[in-house]
């Protein structure tokens, strides 16, 4: 459904196929509020006028949207029958009392834990719909593949939206879900002000760092690469900035020397889901308030590109070892090996595991010092060695040990 221009007549779907509202055309912005009660409700072929006291004008702050008229939360509860506010979703309990209505936005496997936790508590939460990124081509066959969130949403029969960008039509569709709050977890698209202002409780984000450190798209990769001792998850209120909103709650996680991107992602996904279920009731009741972030401690985690995973042997062995863990399992640390029998062309090598060796290598940075059962030792900057114990030559199957 396209969002109408100012003064145009439009049709808005609400809860049932036969229940909807028709707004009469009002071309004068000045007298729009005077005509606000002029709504007609049609239900099962029967027409009845809506009382003015049941209608509330809610101005929209978004650009391109003149004004959004909808029923307030309390008035909706009075004017609609309980069955009119049922959510679509297999396995969700019907008639549950005072369940918080939740819309969800997420894309990668990290987001699945939170959505599954919400679906697993139907007495407390009703998931009314899901937003996720469009299908993308992936794999050797470059076939279209849906996101992990899409698979779970379809499994539970949730209404699903996959817009390439958030426009007025998407905002209207999300508003029709009538959610109390929009939960966001690694969605991947910027939310415009119109969508941020749609849910009465706003948009709550699960961010995989202890804000304000590591705002941005790759907080887990960057914290491992930087050698941080700890990270965690933050439950935050979203605003128009990039992870700049006030923080409701944080849960720390102590990084282990062997942690990789894969292991930390799994741990933080579980922590984030648990923290979300603990914070949402207090946010809804007003018992939990959000604290502004300290801008002095803010750092930015830029998006990871494949080129960022190229190993620079001019760095220290400790830095290279952290880089290998930070980019495992994607995009995978890599380098080029000049070896005999390769026709003069460097051999592309992917490195899955590495360890810091001793000092005093006796060779130039990047030079292979030795190859043995323990792996390949490569001279690095700062007089160290990096023992690359698990490597993969593309085209030769799974990673293997030298």
CATH level-four homologous superfamily name of the largest domain: Formyl transferase, N-terminal domain
* Mean pLDDT across every amino acid position: 78
Stretches with pLDDT under 50, minimum 5 residues? 1-86, 88-96, 395-402
Straight-line N-to-C gap: 59 Å
CATH architecture of the largest domain: 3-Layer(aba) Sandwich
Number of domains: 3
Q: Give the total of beta strands.
A: 23
CATH-derived topology of the largest domain: Rossmann fold
Strand order of the largest sheet: 11-8-7-12-13-15-16
Strand content: 25-35%
The level 1 CATH classification of the largest domain is: Alpha Beta
The helix content is 10-25%
The outline comes out as elongated
Gyration radius, in Å: 26 Å
Question: Which sheet architecture does the biggest sheet show?
Answer: 7 strands, mixed
Q: Name the structural class.
A: alpha+beta
Number of helices: 8
Structural summary, described in words:
The model is unreliable at 1-86, 88-96 and 395-402 (pLDDT under 50). Helix 5 links the parallel strand 12 (181-185) and strand 13 (203-207). The protein has helices spanning 73-79, 109-119, 148-155, 168-176, 193-196, 219-226, 261-285, 317-326, and strands at 10-14, 16-23, 39-43, 46-49, 56-58, 68-70, 100-106, 125-131, 136-138, 143-145, 160-161, 181-185, 203-207, 215-216, 230-237, 247-254, 300-301, 333-337, 347-359, 368-372, 375-379, 384-392, 400-401. It has 402 residues and is α+β, with helices and mostly antiparallel strands. Strands 11-8-7-12-13-15-16 form a seven-stranded mixed β-sheet. Strands 18, 19, 20, 21, 22 and 23 form a six-stranded antiparallel β-sheet that branches. A four-stranded antiparallel β-sheet has the order 1-2-3-4, with no helix packed on it.
């Amino acid at each position: 459904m396209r969002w109408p221009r100012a003064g145009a007549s439009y049709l808005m779907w609400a809860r049932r196929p036969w229940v909807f509202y028709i707004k009469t055309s009002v071309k004068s912005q000045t007298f729009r509020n005077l005509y606000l009660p002029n709504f007609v409700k049609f239900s099962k072929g029967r027409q009845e006028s809506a009382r003015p006291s049941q209608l509330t004008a809610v101005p929209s702050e978004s650009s391109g949207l003149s004004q959004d008229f909808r029923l307030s939360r309390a008035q909706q509860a009075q004017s609609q029958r309980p069955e009119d506010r049922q959510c679509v979703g297999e396995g969700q309990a019907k008639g549950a009392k005072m369940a918080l209505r939740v819309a969800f936005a997420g894309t990668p496997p990290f987001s699945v834990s939170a959505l599954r936790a919400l679906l697993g508590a139907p007495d407390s939460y009703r998931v009314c719909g899901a937003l996720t990124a469009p299908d993308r081509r992936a794999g050797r066959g470059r076939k279209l593949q849906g996101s992990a969130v899409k698979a779970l949403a379809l499994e539970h029969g949730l209404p699903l939206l996959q817009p390439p960008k958030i426009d007025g039509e998407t905002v209207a569709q999300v508003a029709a879900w009538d959610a109390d709050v929009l939960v966001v977890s690694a969605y991947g698209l910027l939310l415009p002000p119109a969508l941020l202002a749609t849910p009465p409780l706003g948009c709550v984000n699960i961010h995989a760092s202890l804000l304000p450190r590591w705002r941005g798209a790759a907080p887990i990769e960057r914290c491992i690469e930087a050698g941080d001792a700890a990270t965690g998850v933050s439950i935050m209120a979203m605003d128009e900035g990039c992870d700049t909103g006030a923080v409701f709650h944080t849960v720390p996680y102590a990084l282990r020397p062997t942690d990789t991107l894969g292991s930390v992602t799994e741990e933080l996904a579980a922590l984030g889901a648990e923290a979300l279920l603990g914070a949402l009731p207090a946010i809804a009741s007003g018992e939990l308030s959000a604290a502004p972030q300290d801008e002095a401690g803010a750092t930015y985690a830029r998006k990871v590109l494949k080129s960022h995973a190229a190993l620079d042997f001019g760095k220290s062995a400790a830095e290279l070892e952290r880089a290998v863990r930070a980019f495992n399992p994607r995009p995978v640390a890599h380098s080029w090996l000049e070896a005999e029998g390769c026709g003069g062309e460097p051999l592309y090598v992917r490195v899955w595991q590495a360890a810091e060796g001793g000092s005093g290598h006796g060779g130039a940075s990047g030079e292979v010092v030795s190859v043995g059962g323990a792996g390949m030792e490569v001279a690095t900057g700062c007089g160290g060695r990096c023992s690359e114990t698990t490597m993969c030559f593309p085209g030769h199957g799974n990673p293997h040990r030298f």
